[in-house]
Design brief:
The chain has 124 residues and is an all-beta fold. The chain has no helices and 10 strands. The strands form 2 sheets. Strands 2, 4, 5, 8, 9 and 10 form a 6-stranded mixed sheet that branches. Strands 1-3-7-6 form a 4-stranded antiparallel sheet, with no helix packed on it. Strand 6 and strand 7 form a beta hairpin. The chain is globular, with a radius of gyration of 13 Å. The mean pLDDT is 95.
């Protein structure tokens, strides 16, 4: 059973940066694909970014491409989401998710394990 704990959320101004962390335990992190998703009030959970084994594949949502960077440190069992040039529309609860497999899919239903989420609020 894999446990995921997100951290690094907060309240920032538009244009600022934040780095989210996703610490994993209870499984073989290096064999896991990691995805980041977000959910704003009244909206469905949406894909943000994913990273597969050894960062072979890193798909991004169009809305964050060029601003967000996903990475992983297998020695630390941690994945990161560097968020730059934040916009008010990036405000949401951000979740990390994990699944066994080479590739990080973009569909939430493909992931087996989920963290509790961390709130990101961007004000204009």
């Amino acid at each position: 059973q894999v446990q995921l704990v997100e951290s690094g959320g907060g309240s920032v101004q538009a244009g600022d940066s934040l780095r989210l962390s996703c610490a994993a335990s209870g499984g073989t992190f290096s064999n896991s694909a990691i995805g980041w998703f977000r959910q704003a009030p009244g909206k469905e959970r949406e894909f943000v970014a994913a990273i597969g084994w050894s960062a072979v594949t890193t798909p991004y949502a169009d809305s964050v491409k060029g601003r967000f960077i996903i990475s992983r440190d297998d020695a630390e069992n941690t994945a990161y989401l560097q968020m730059n040039s934040l916009k008010p529309e990036d405000s949401a609860v951000y979740y990390c998710a994990a699944r066994n497999g080479l590739v990080g899919p973009t569909s939430a239903r493909e992931y087996e394990y989920w963290g509790q989420g961390t709130q990101v609020t961007v004000s204009s």
